[in-house]
Amino acid sequence: MGKVAVLFRLMPHGVETDLGAVQRSIASAVPAGVTVRGSQIKDVAFGLKSLLVSVVMDDTGGVLESTEHALAKIPEVESVEVMEEGLL
Q: What range defines the domain where residue 41 resides?
């Protein structure tokens, strides 16, 4: 079994969303066995920002989907998208 690096993009409900609070919630939201490597706030357009989250997880079935669902449950997160995925 290998490791997989995944980059997620989290979109907030709106421009007034505190992405710093969302960022602080990530580590406690991800399932066990998933390591958060970093996160970064990026401008999208017209004051809207997104949060890019880099994680490393085992290459086992269902872990990617469960992580995506866990991130989507963070308050003020509108959507979660997998931007990149690759084996380590």
A: 3-87
Residue 65 phi, psi (nearest 5):
-65, -40
| pTM of the shown model | 0.94
Q: Which residues contact 35 (CB under 8 A, 6 or more apart)?
A: 55, 56, 57
Paired strand residues for 53:
8, 39
- Write out pLDDT tens, residues 16-69: 999 999 999 999 999 999 999 999 999 999 999 999 999 999 998 899 999 999
**Contact call for residues 38 and 54 (beta carbons, < 8 A):** yes
Sign (positive/negative) of CA torsion 18, 21, 29, 47?
positive
CATH number for the domain harbouring residue 26: 3.30.70.60
Cα distance between residue 18 and residue 21, in whole Å: 6
